[in-house]
Fold:
Amino acid sequence: MQQKHRRKSAGSEPVEPLYREIRAVLQSARRGAYRAVNAAMVQAYWNVGRLIVEHEQGGRKRAAYGEAVLDELSRRLMAEFGRGFDITNLRKMRQFYRMFDIRDAVRLELGKAKRDAPCLVSGWWRHFARQPAVN
Structure:
Protein backbone atom coordinates (compact mmCIF):
# COMPACT_ATOMS: atom_id res chain seq x y z
CA MET A 1 0.00 0.00 0.00
CA GLN A 2 1.42 3.32 -0.99
CA GLN A 3 1.46 6.16 1.48
CA LYS A 4 0.77 9.65 0.32
CA HIS A 5 3.54 11.94 1.38
CA ARG A 6 3.28 15.66 1.60
CA ARG A 7 5.89 17.11 -0.60
CA LYS A 8 7.84 19.91 0.93
CA SER A 9 8.62 22.64 -1.46
CA ALA A 10 12.11 23.98 -1.52
CA GLY A 11 11.08 27.11 0.36
CA SER A 12 8.67 25.60 2.92
CA GLU A 13 10.67 26.63 5.99
CA PRO A 14 10.56 30.39 5.27
CA VAL A 15 6.82 30.10 4.55
CA GLU A 16 6.02 28.67 8.00
CA PRO A 17 5.87 32.01 9.88
CA LEU A 18 3.69 33.50 7.13
CA TYR A 19 1.40 30.46 7.24
CA ARG A 20 1.05 30.77 11.03
CA GLU A 21 0.16 34.45 10.80
CA ILE A 22 -2.44 33.84 8.09
CA ARG A 23 -3.84 30.92 10.07
CA ALA A 24 -4.17 33.11 13.19
CA VAL A 25 -5.98 35.83 11.20
CA LEU A 26 -8.46 33.30 9.79
CA GLN A 27 -9.08 31.65 13.16
CA SER A 28 -9.67 35.04 14.78
CA ALA A 29 -12.11 36.00 12.02
CA ARG A 30 -14.03 32.76 12.50
CA ARG A 31 -14.29 33.30 16.26
CA GLY A 32 -15.46 36.87 15.69
CA ALA A 33 -18.08 35.74 13.18
CA TYR A 34 -19.32 33.07 15.57
CA ARG A 35 -19.71 35.61 18.40
CA ALA A 36 -21.44 38.11 16.10
CA VAL A 37 -23.96 35.52 14.89
CA ASN A 38 -24.66 34.38 18.44
CA ALA A 39 -25.15 37.94 19.65
CA ALA A 40 -27.53 38.62 16.75
CA MET A 41 -29.55 35.50 17.54
CA VAL A 42 -29.86 36.36 21.24
CA GLN A 43 -31.08 39.81 20.23
CA ALA A 44 -33.53 38.21 17.77
CA TYR A 45 -34.89 35.86 20.48
CA TRP A 46 -35.31 38.85 22.82
CA ASN A 47 -37.20 40.72 20.08
CA VAL A 48 -39.44 37.71 19.35
CA GLY A 49 -40.28 37.60 23.06
CA ARG A 50 -40.97 41.34 23.06
CA LEU A 51 -43.32 41.08 20.09
CA ILE A 52 -45.23 38.21 21.68
CA VAL A 53 -45.59 40.07 25.00
CA GLU A 54 -46.67 43.29 23.29
CA HIS A 55 -49.24 41.36 21.25
CA GLU A 56 -50.57 39.66 24.37
CA GLN A 57 -50.87 42.97 26.18
CA GLY A 58 -53.01 44.33 23.36
CA GLY A 59 -56.10 43.59 25.45
CA ARG A 60 -56.43 39.85 24.90
CA LYS A 61 -54.94 38.15 27.93
CA ARG A 62 -57.09 35.04 27.96
CA ALA A 63 -54.94 31.90 28.24
CA ALA A 64 -56.75 30.06 25.46
CA TYR A 65 -56.21 32.92 23.05
CA GLY A 66 -52.52 33.17 23.94
CA GLU A 67 -51.98 29.45 23.45
CA ALA A 68 -53.76 29.53 20.08
CA VAL A 69 -51.52 32.39 18.96
CA LEU A 70 -48.36 30.58 20.07
CA ASP A 71 -49.54 27.40 18.37
CA GLU A 72 -50.12 29.22 15.07
CA LEU A 73 -46.86 31.17 15.31
CA SER A 74 -44.96 28.00 16.10
CA ARG A 75 -46.46 26.11 13.19
CA ARG A 76 -45.64 28.86 10.70
CA LEU A 77 -42.18 29.73 12.04
CA MET A 78 -41.12 26.08 12.17
CA ALA A 79 -42.21 25.60 8.58
CA GLU A 80 -40.02 28.51 7.48
CA PHE A 81 -37.13 28.59 9.99
CA GLY A 82 -36.93 25.10 11.48
CA ARG A 83 -37.59 23.34 14.74
CA GLY A 84 -36.09 26.02 17.01
CA PHE A 85 -39.46 27.75 17.09
CA ASP A 86 -41.65 25.18 18.79
CA ILE A 87 -44.14 26.38 21.40
CA THR A 88 -41.73 25.67 24.26
CA ASN A 89 -39.03 27.87 22.71
CA LEU A 90 -41.52 30.65 21.95
CA ARG A 91 -42.57 30.58 25.62
CA LYS A 92 -38.92 30.77 26.64
CA MET A 93 -38.35 33.73 24.32
CA ARG A 94 -41.34 35.45 25.93
CA GLN A 95 -39.92 34.66 29.37
CA PHE A 96 -36.48 35.90 28.25
CA TYR A 97 -37.99 39.25 27.29
CA ARG A 98 -39.90 39.50 30.56
CA MET A 99 -36.74 38.83 32.57
CA PHE A 100 -34.75 41.39 30.58
CA ASP A 101 -37.40 43.83 29.46
CA ILE A 102 -34.87 46.62 29.05
CA ARG A 103 -32.65 46.24 26.00
CA ASP A 104 -29.66 47.59 27.92
CA ALA A 105 -29.97 44.74 30.40
CA VAL A 106 -29.45 42.31 27.53
CA ARG A 107 -26.50 44.36 26.29
CA LEU A 108 -24.98 44.29 29.77
CA GLU A 109 -25.34 40.53 29.95
CA LEU A 110 -23.89 40.11 26.47
CA GLY A 111 -20.94 42.31 27.38
CA LYS A 112 -20.39 40.36 30.58
CA ALA A 113 -20.51 37.07 28.67
CA LYS A 114 -17.95 38.41 26.21
CA ARG A 115 -15.61 39.56 29.00
CA ASP A 116 -15.96 36.30 30.91
CA ALA A 117 -14.74 34.06 28.09
CA PRO A 118 -15.19 31.24 27.30
CA CYS A 119 -18.86 31.85 28.19
CA LEU A 120 -20.12 32.64 24.70
CA VAL A 121 -23.49 34.15 24.02
CA SER A 122 -24.82 30.91 22.58
CA GLY A 123 -23.92 29.10 25.79
CA TRP A 124 -25.61 31.85 27.76
CA TRP A 125 -28.84 31.55 25.74
CA ARG A 126 -28.65 27.74 25.84
CA HIS A 127 -28.36 27.89 29.64
CA PHE A 128 -31.35 30.23 29.83
CA ALA A 129 -33.41 28.16 27.39
CA ARG A 130 -32.89 25.00 29.46
CA GLN A 131 -34.44 26.60 32.55
CA PRO A 132 -37.97 25.49 33.44
CA ALA A 133 -40.59 27.77 31.92
CA VAL A 134 -42.28 30.24 34.25
CA ASN A 135 -45.54 31.56 32.84
Q: What stands out?
A: Confidence is low (pLDDT under 50) at residues 114-121. Residues 38-129 form one domain. The chain is about 75% helix and 0% strand.
